[in-house]
Amino acid sequence: MSEMTSEKELNVSTEKNTDKISKSDQQSELIDSVRKSDIPEESKNAIVQQMEMFYSGPLPAPSAFGQYDKVLPGAAERILKMAEQEQNHRHEIDNKQLYMLSRDSLVGIIAGMGLGMCALVAGVLVAMNVPNTGGTILGGVFGVSGVGTIAVSIIKGTRSQ
Question: Less Cβ around it within 10 Å: N or C end of the chain?
C-alpha cells in the first residue's frame, strides 16, 4: 500500500522538514475500512501500523500549515515569504543565465564573421599579389576557409541549445 498512516499520528514529509499532525476523520475512515476488510487480521494490524502519508513541496502540507502559527505566531507568514523569496531568486538566476547564453551566442557569431571576413580579405590579397597559379590557389584556399568559417559560425550561433 503506497499511502500509509499511523493510527496515532500522520507523518507529513516536506522537502526540508517532517511535521506530525493528529489523525483526521479521513484517516479514521481509512483505518476503519482496512479493519472491516477481508484481509487476514495479522495483515490488517501491519497495514494500520505502517500507514503513512507523504507530502512533498516547498511549503508544508496545507493541513499542517496553520499549526505553525499555533506554535510560533507569524511563522506561517514567514514561511510564505521565504518561499516567495526563493522563487524570485530562482527566476533571477534563470534570467541571468538566459542573458549570458544569448550574449555568448552573439559574441561567437560576431567573432566567426570577423574571422571569416579576415580570411576572405587575405584570400583576395594573396590572389592579387602572388604571381602565377600559386597565388590563385592559395587565395582560393583562404577564401573558401573564410566562407566556411562564416557559415559554421552562423549555423552554430543560431542553433538552439
Answer: C
DSSP secondary structure letters along 82-125: HHHHHHHHHHHHHHHHHHHHHHHHHHHHHHHHHHHHHHHHHHHH
| pTM for the whole structure | 0.49
Angle at 88 between CA 87 and CA 90, to 5 degrees: 65
Average pLDDT on 1-12 reads: 38
Contacts of 29-38 with C-beta under 8 Å, sequence gap 24+, read 30/5, 31/5, 31/7
Please check whether residue 58 is in contact with residue 106, taking contact to mean a CB–CB distance below 8 angstroms: no
Q: What is the torsional sign of CA 10, 11, 13, 18?
A: positive
Residue 108 Cα to chain centre, angstroms: 26
- Rg (the chain; Cα; Å): 34
2, pLDDT greater than 60: no
User: Which one-letter DSSP state was computed for residue 4?
Assistant: -
Alpha helices in 10-74 (DSSP H): 25-36, 41-50, 62-71
